[in-house]
Amino acid sequence: AKEKGRNDFQIFNSDMKSVSINRLRLENELRRALVNEEFVLYYQPQVDIGSGRIVGVEALIRWNHPDKGMVMPNHFIPLAEESGLIVPIGEWVLRAACKQNKTWQSEGYAPIPISVNLSMRQFFQHNLKGKISHVLEQTELDPRYLELEITESMTMDVDHAIQSLLELKELGVNVSIDDFGTGYSSLYYLKKFPIDKLKIDRSFVRDIMVDPNDAAIVATIIAMTHHLNLKVIAEGVETEDQLKFLYQNRCNEVQGYWFSPPVDRLELEHMLRHGISV
Ligand code: C2E
Ligand code: CA
Ligand code: CA
Ligand code: CA
Fold first, then answer.
1. Protein residues with CB under 6 Å of any ligand 1 atom
2. Which residues form the EAL domain (predicted)?
3. What is the pTM of this model?
């Protein structure tokens, strides 16, 4: 029994070691990825529910790893957040997204806003306004064609969030609240935040046809956004029934696999030229 106990301990110990070695390796690889520009942006169209037109795109990061191929954000964003690497990675995303949007405009595509996800660390970063304004100047993108997505958890410190949001508004960019409904935003404070749009989280959208509670929540969020003069977009729309429900409940915009998954630049450009065929 004594023998076994020691082995268990050693197994546990070496597991722990390999976990931290893996983390360290991943962190170093992320640093290298930044230097070698291994990150790429994919783009998911945001569609006007009445006209079916593409009225925006969300930029979503991918890691084109030399050995592993295309790595999805849930495999590296959490560690990037913990290690602080999300700040330089987020800056790369912001610059790349603004640059690409400016290029599309120069090429004659109808101007649409590009949405960029901001991490908590970026949002509470000192001089966020200065950094974003610098990128906008460098890329010559008109600020109204940039939308920043923050999550509800970033609005928990209400005063700080209002202050940061006011600074972003001074720049002329748009702000939306991502994954809306999954956090604890007080509806009372919602009207005090200088924001433009709510993005209804896909966990509610997923079950609107099967769960009357989710249907009620989605309908209520949409009605509320109209009262507060906010725009509203539903995420994760995968079926025609969900789309119909959202249309009947006067949702403005939709995003999801029903229209298109996130795609690379060329595929997105094809959709911008020819529209989306579902
Ligand atoms: P998110 O911001 O909520 O992005 C939406 C995610 O839902 C994307 O996953 C997208 O591919 C997926 N999605 C879109 N439509 C559908 C649908 O109809 N059904 C289903 N099942 N999924 C759908 P992705 O690209 O893997 O990104 C995951 C998360 O990683 C993002 O969630 C965001 O939190 C984070 N992320 C991605 N890019 C960035 C970035 O540049 N910066 C930061 N800070 N986070 C990022
Ligand atoms: Ca998002
Ligand atoms: Ca989301
Ligand atoms: Ca999310």
1. 44, 60-61, 72-74, 77, 86, 90, 93, 117, 119, 178-179, 202, 236-238, 256-257, 261-262
2. 23-276
3. 0.93
